[in-house]
Amino acid sequence: MLRNAAAGQHGLSGGRLAYCVPRMTGGEEVGTDRPGEAISVVIASFSVGRLAGLARAIESVRRQTQAPLELLVVIDGDGELAANARELLPGELVLVNEHAPGLAGARQTGADHARGTVLAFLDDDAVAEPDWLAAHARAYDDPLVLGVGGWIEPAWPHQAPHWFPPEFNWVVGCSYAGLPQAGARLRNPIGANMSLRASALVAAGGFDTRLGRVHGRRGLFGTAEETELGIRASAAVPGGYWLFAPDARVSHAIAPERTTPRYFIRRCLVEGKAKALLAELAGGEEALRSERRYVRSVLPRALARELTGAVRGHGDGVLRAGAIVAGLGVTTLAYGVARLPALAGRRAGRG
């Protein structure tokens, strides 16, 4: 559907964001797809050091009960990995990132070349359950479904750190305790396990490479890219919505360096900054609707659970309660500091 699409580089122009904009071919419209018959799977990778994980991800796609139309592997900036991937995938399509460096550009490259009416994205350190693709396909029975988010189970190096609250699994890119029930509508999926209609991506204008992760560069990463895309696609397609399908399951490998308190705090800092940018781009009310529910409902219940456990003699409850308070406090502080220039500018403008 999007093969040979012409997409411009993303960047800042006149203070506004410009997106990768693929060209629609054939005049398709959202709601006319038959996704059960044509799903393209896209896996992006960026380092030869991740080759073993990439091989496991590819093998899990090959074991699906519902075979994909095609598998596309997109390499972001590592020529050695590209050569190895071509050896690993004879006859399959291995691409190099044709957009700005980073995950968003790599995903857009896959979308540009994909032929499926639905695009399913899997991380290179994730392994899909055998019925993962079939579960995604079933979720598209309603033609107004723009995209689908599945369940991402953390695969810890040994076990979850004893101080780590499951409500903060988003820190390591996984599904967290407190998500809505199966069949619920989502604002956005998590990119390690998501799918969307190719026509919805075109209607939204493509992936935003400003928010995508870039290897070797600290900056905005995590779910910011998916959140912004989810909001933008919903605005572009009246009546369209995102669906949660927890039976579409993958396991996501967690690197040891992501299990430390230092990483936890740094990731919360980055999340706060990313949410500030999203509030500016998409409008605070819509951009942070899920976060408000999380802060007002999910975290108070988690804190009460851990403190109750601590009173009953479970020592780890104190540590997890402390992590909840610290995570929320750091994220909120980073958000507030990042929002100050925009708020000050608005006040000056009114003055």
How would you explain this protein's 3D organization?
With 351 residues, the chain is α/β, with parallel strands linked by helices. It has two domains: 11-257, Spore Coat Polysaccharide Biosynthesis Protein SpsA, Chain A (Alpha-Beta Complex), CATH 3.90.550; 260-351. The protein is 41% helix and 18% strand. The chain has helices at 51-62, 79-88, 103-113, 132-138, 198-204, 224-236, 261-282, 284-287, 289-311, 315-350, and strands at 11-13, 16-18, 39-45, 70-75, 93-96, 118-123, 126-128, 145-155, 185-186, 193-197, 241-253. The strands form two sheets. Strands 3, 4, 5, 6, 7, 8, 9, 10 and 11 form a nine-stranded mixed sheet that branches. Strand 4, helix 2 (79-88) and strand 5 form a beta-alpha-beta unit. Helix 5 (198-204) crosses helix 6 (224-236) and helix 7 (261-282) runs parallel beside helix 10 (315-350). Residues 1-34 and 218-222 have low confidence and may be disordered.
Relevant terms:
2 domains, alpha/beta, 351 residues, 11 strands, Spore Coat Polysaccharide Biosynthesis Protein SpsA, Chain A
Number of domains: 2
Overall shape: globular
| CATH second-level architecture of the largest domain | Alpha-Beta Complex
Radius of gyration: 20 Å
Provide the residue-averaged pLDDT: 84
